[in-house]
Amino acid sequence: MEALRDYIYHLERRIRELEAERAELRRELRRYRLEVDKLLSPPLIEAIVLSVLPDGRVVVKSSTGPNLVVTVSANVDPSKLTPGAYVALNQRGSMIVEVLPEREDPYVKAMEVIERPHVTFDDIGGLDEQKRELYEAVILPLTKPSLFREVGIEPPKGVLLYGPPGCGKTLLAKAVAAMSNATFIRVVGSEFVHKYVGEGARIVREVFKMARRKAPAIVFIDEIDAIAAKRIDIGTSGEREVQRTLMQLLAELDGFDPLGDVKVIAATNRIDILDPALLRPGRFDRLIYVPPPDEKGRYEIFRIHTRRMKLAPDVDLLQLAKMTEGATGADIKAIVMEAGYNAIRRGSKTVSMSDFIAAIDKVLRKRRRYQYDTQDYVENNMLQHSSEQNVMHI
Q: Is omega for the bond preceding 216 within 30 degrees of 0, making it cis?
């Protein structure tokens, strides 16, 4: 009897195990059936809501091309069917079966700076006036908007940084990105240029749409002269497309939709070729010239770039600043790096004054030679072009 009771207990336990296994298999069967149904179901069509009719039907623009008047599924909340919303249509009956979440263009989403640069105004030598103007025009309106409301003035919408290359325009923008808690969107002007008609204007709209949605935000357009050159009456189809992109940018800067807590910073080396419509007040209210550093600025730049270096006692940064008349911030950074290489070549762990003097001679001589070679190249091309014109005239 004891053996029989053990056998019955064993069978009951085995029955419970088999029932649990059968329940698990049924769950897997249901899951696989759902997967098969998904594989066999036709794909949904994406569309954009244009308007809602009084009878409850909706006018949508289908991604396949035509505008359609469609019905709405009972599972869809009618309050979400606003103009501009993305919806999914059933292929068989062209019925709205789902309201899609608002999405961002991945191309535009990649322009948002997630990891902010570790640069502040203290890391920029000289340019005290430029830093003050940039702080007052961009950072202060975003951090303390109540000051402007109390005074009763509108803060600037945009700031244009212009000046020779290598003088710190992009570095100033990096410092603004690091010092502000606003969303920072960085885009190069050439990224707005596309071969398809209307694509550049669409990207401009998407950039400012994302900036308004994530306000407070700062949009930094580097090398804006790529799309903002003066408009001409005659041009190729590519030039006309660039002009359409420029007109969309002008509309975003000073159109019907206010920018609000969105500030625009642009940088260029060629302000002389920019369209006058871009430079008028109301679009870029502040034009900030970023010049080559003076002697005091060059000293501060040397001090910033050499603060982690092991300098010999004979190194005089003030004397180096006097010796580098006309050098830009980028030139000074290259000089410091070249001086470090000179010390490594000597097998020394400290950088001496002679290393800096040799670096200054190498970097500045190379830059002057490049300028002379470029000037000779341009003059020769102009002479050759003039000769060709004379031959054609004859």
A: yes
Q: 298-312: per-residue pLDDT in tens?
A: 888 888 888 888 888
Phi, psi of 133 (to 5 degrees): -65, -40
Cα–Cα dist 68/383, whole Å: 63
Between strands 58-62 and 67-70, the pairing is antiparallel
Provide the residue type at 359 as one letter. Answer: A
Mean pLDDT across the chain, nearest whole number? Answer: 80
Task: Specify which residues 387 forms β-bridges with.
Answer: none
Tokens representing 283 are 């679009």
DSSP 356: H
The CA-based angle 60-62-64, given to 5 degrees, is 165
CA distance 68 to 105: 24
Q: Where are the alpha helices (DSSP H) in 228-348?
A: 237-253, 276-279, 295-305, 317-323, 329-346
Q: Would you state the pLDDT for residue 24?
A: 92
Of the two residues 374 and 295, the one the predictor is more confident about is: 295
**Rounded to whole angstroms, what are the CA distances from 37 to 27, 41, 203, 321?**
15, 6, 38, 75
pLDDT category of residue 114 using cuts at 50, 70 and 90: low
DSSP one-letter string for 236-269? -HHHHHHHHHHHHHHHHHSSSS--SSEEEEEEES
